[in-house]
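Sanity check. The docking grid for 5-amino-5-deoxy-1-O-phosphono-D-mannitol depends on where the pocket ends up, so I'm generating a full predicted complex first rather than guessing from homology. Inputs follow.
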Amino acid sequence: MCGITGYVGEEEAAPLLYNGLKRMEYRGYDSAGIATISGNQLVVKKDAGKVAEINNYLDFLSMRGKIGIAHTRWATHGGVTKENAHPHVSCKIDVAVIHNGIIENHQQLKEALKADGHIFNSETDTEVIAHLLEKHAEKHKDSKRIVLETVKDLKGSFAFLAIFASDPETLIGARKDAPLAIGITRRGNFIASDILAFIDYTDRVIFLDNREIAVVKQDKVQIYNFAGRPVQKQITQVAWEAKDTSKAEFAHYTTKEIHEQPQTLKAALYQDQDKIKRFVEAVKQSEHVNITACGTSYHAGLVLRNLLARLAKIRSGITLSSEFAHDAELIGPDSLLIGLSQSGETADLLSAVADAKKKGAEVFSILNVVGSTLDRESALSLSINCGPEIGVAATKSFTGQLAIAYLLAFSVVDDMRRLSELRNIWKAVEEVLKQEDKVVDVADKYKDCNDFYFVGRGLHLPIALEGALKLKELAYNHAEGMAGGELKHGTLALIEEGTPVVVLNPEDETYDEMLSNASEMKARGARIIGVSNKPNQIYDEFIEIPKVDKLLYPLIEVIPLQMLAYHAAVLRKKDPDYPRNLAKSVTVK
Ligand code: M6R
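Predicted complex below; grid placement will be based on this.
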């Protein structure tokens, strides 16, 4: 969940690292810090707060040295304080470390190190790594060997970078269950948890695998496994470009990403036909299709499950990845597991994938980040191609995942008419985006209501869940998404005068029943916000969407819900790009 980056090369490290920190701030944004080595002296600057604010008084950019590491934090162990911010140093201040992940045995390690005289300055699990490195440096001179000895002591998940004052030309990274990628340039090299950290300087990347360390110098990159044996790696040219990471004319990344959806939908549907054929065949042939994902990606998975059942009569199971270990008894060698993920690095999902592979299942995926761990763990993956998604709330990646779900389901049944409608759905999305003023009015009227309900049936239920999730995470209103038919089984008791209820009600087989639900709620005082292609007097507010094929409504009705959450956040003076307590990529379990 934290962002880590390091550089060694001909250039001054601090400005490159500072830029990387700003690019990675979406991974965690409660503290930040940089360590560099100049001569043989290690200097660390860090504090709690946002990167740019800290820079105003610590002046990261003035730090000297051609090697350095930098970290932006999302707290797991220890409060949000200067002491707990990374980098962490050893007692002699000759080793600095930054880390993403959780060291599960940090308590035992800390006790043992303290007994040996090490003095700790933070409450973090990470600090043990710095002291362990120092301990092993007493016996070994070679930085690579010191890191290899240290990883033997660690349990849990980690990606860490270390620099040594005694070896100022070497940057070392180690990876186990948390991502690390190396960016290669002619004038030096980077290691980071995220290619966005160095995308301004290079698109040539080496992805580390689990249980590998990278020994990186200005002109040389060597990879070893944890046993110390050299590993040969390919350099990949990544498709993202630096311009993809700008906000352009938009106030926030989140609104930029919402507005990009006509283009990103087209990009998602531009797929290698051979891969689609292989995916479709595997879905048709498999004894058991299972889907797994977290958060918004799970909602896309629900749509995929519904479409496969409804169109192709394929029964598939779907499990939240965090529940997979408790609910996947039926996974076996005849199963196909489909993982959905924007980042491809979500720890719960990767653990479900590992579990399924252990049981002999085949793993396919639908993801955004090519080269991510999920991509490399999958026998076949389809990329949604939506470019970097920087807003913490998933928006364009969700519609990208939906587009691929439709593409697969329509291909399974060879529905050429719907495939052609799908390819034109971006036009309807453009129409919906024109409703933004209406959505702003609605957001303004209801922004301070304590509770919101989002109600839908059938294919609209996952969108109701998604609308509620967006509002919770961006505007911090309590919100619940639910099936229309479930209201009378409990939730109706909570409807009172003025409660806003978003009713997803385009014209399809759910239309009449949803109108009845709307009436039941209105009779109890609810204010009905109707999202439909057809007006009705029952709606207190009406957000119009164009008429499209009845199966395709989810792709367009989610857009006003994303805009509602975004504008409610802005009107409530919350930062939509960096919601409190959240991070974009949840790489810890
Ligand atoms: O990268 P992933 O799609 O695997 O992430 C899954 C969830 O963490 C993610 O969708 C999360 O729920 C978003 N913040 C929702 O907007």
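Relevant for the grid: The longest helix spans residues 553-571.
Also worth noting: The pocket of 5-amino-5-deoxy-1-O-phosphono-D-mannitol is lined by residues 294-297, 341-343, 346, 349, 392-394, 469, 473, 585-586 (CB under 6 Å).
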